[in-house]
Write the structure tokens for this entry.
Amino acid sequence: MSRMAGKQSVMFDRPVEILSHACVAGKKEGEGPLGKKMDVIVEDPKFGKGNWEEGESQFLKTACEIAMRKGGRKKEEVRMAFCGDLLGQMIASSFGIKDLGIPYYGVYGACSSAGAALALAAMAVEGGFADTALAACSSHFGSAEKEFRFPLGYGNQRPYSATWTVTGAGAFLLGSRPETRRREEAQKDGKKEAGRRAEPAKKKKRKVKIRGIVTGKIKDYGTADPFHMGASMAPAAADTIYQALEDFGRVAEDFDCIATGDLGTVGRELLLDLLKKNQVDVRKNHVDCGMEIYSTKEQDAHAGGSGCACSALVLSSLLLPRLESGEWKRILFVPTGALLSQVSANEGRTIPAIAHGIWLEQEGEEECM
Amino acid sequence: MSRMAGKQSVMFDRPVEILSHACVAGKKEGEGPLGKKMDVIVEDPKFGKGNWEEGESQFLKTACEIAMRKGGRKKEEVRMAFCGDLLGQMIASSFGIKDLGIPYYGVYGACSSAGAALALAAMAVEGGFADTALAACSSHFGSAEKEFRFPLGYGNQRPYSATWTVTGAGAFLLGSRPETRRREEAQKDGKKEAGRRAEPAKKKKRKVKIRGIVTGKIKDYGTADPFHMGASMAPAAADTIYQALEDFGRVAEDFDCIATGDLGTVGRELLLDLLKKNQVDVRKNHVDCGMEIYSTKEQDAHAGGSGCACSALVLSSLLLPRLESGEWKRILFVPTGALLSQVSANEGRTIPAIAHGIWLEQEGEEECM
């Protein structure tokens, strides 16, 4: 049986494995420091489609397809998909996933959607409701600016606190352990055959599991500037990180890395301050995905990257590979989302925010703790 | 352990109880045939707030508060909330739930959101991830017309295939059985005391459980008319109903009622036809929530009601009471959603749709089957 941990967390008795993952990036993201680690870089912002929104759906669909291929799963074998994006009525997700024919739940947490999708997919797998589940999300600079800010042709100036919405999509295939074992046995036979074709021996990757989740609460400190979303999201991130440590009975140093989604340079400082006031110091092991995806100065990305794809791409291209290589043993992944809309912004309302936490760990780590 | 049923369903080994539910309706809904069964009718479309969107959030918040009060739960005792609405970036839900401070996941399935929220909340409870979970959703005629169609002041004519977005919100509090038993024991003591105050004896309500769920697949038959959404949604509803019967090994007659969300008069005929082509006849036990909420002719609602609140209000005011009274034993609740947005409609794209299925049953029924 699974169990509730502390006030708002879940600790899985049978941790859920990340069977595979994929990251499909746009041109600017491909030119950034993580570019070489992306599965695919797509130069055309419309991805061969008629407009940005259709292009974004294509990013999502492609990421899902690559993750399934890497994980050795056909779409018919995936029991549930949890997807999210930033567009009104989540059209990027629904148009992206529809042709795959996978039973589907739309999940919304703004830029924290990767966390919400991973948490829900992990619960579905660990609860025995799905043997294989897909968590995916996308964002797109063009479609997001159109949705939230100004027409691109207007050429407005952006303050330095503003972030740049990442174009791309990340997808994560989760599976339960017994299922994985069965699959691996089946693959062994296949591998023997591959061996005959003299493929080069690959360095063994460690498996990564989701060991627990923290469902975020909405925090609203009254900020209302859509060009300074790091300030809206920092309190939500601080709350989730603090609660994760409380609920899991851990200290910050237990995690090799605590990775927030897209606070950016300004939001990061607020996060560190807020946590320090509560006697939690994450300065040494904190990473913000928004500050990793671009060379912010050279690429003119101001405070950093943002969008659902920001944390998803960094998770797939940077964080998970470090766990898989053995460099890191345990991380807390905390994507952050600002829950505004064009309408709420025009009505002069505040920007509430949320952050979900995902405890990721190398396989076997729990035994040695 | 829970188990996967058939291709895309879940059958719970320990069915999840609906501890309580609440329906808060707008003026027009209060004037309809179910008006007397609503918990609250709010005449002011802004619910005392500054605009429709804030009003809608207030509907949602109020429904959640009533459900928690009826279920004898404080907000601190609710482990997770799953909410959805029709507005861009789901501001009705996030602004509605934020002051309650409940850990939260945004769920999007357009007008099928009640089904998605109930399914996810039920999985959270049955998996042991939450002892109490809240599923809620809202919609609003004013905010929806603004979001999807024309400014109300423009006074456009609506074709007879168009539906009327329901103003209101429904909330459902789900709990696990052992937790319920503990609670009931605690309540027994309280009841004795109430007895001393000579309260009138109430007719005993039967408990209703969620016994299984069907996660919907997106269906797109290529329709693109936002004034005829019944046509877009009928194939999704037919698919989910057909799959539910297959996965659960049932025939349509096993259910006292199969209730779709908001197909309306036109969509209903399409549904019946589609199912008949697959040798499934639901004509006798089919109900469409959109056709129940208004006296369509007298209230000028054309094809019927729609919106997330349509199926939620009808579930809380009509369907669950019939299960609780013993009139019905078993129903299949199938809210339907059209996954369009203003942007996708303006781009001339089709309207994909989805429907999720919830198998609801009187307590004790499973033993007699």
Summary: The first strand of chain A starts at residue 3 and ends at 5. Chain A touches chain B through 61 residues (CB under 8 Å). The first helix of chain A runs from residue 27 to 30.
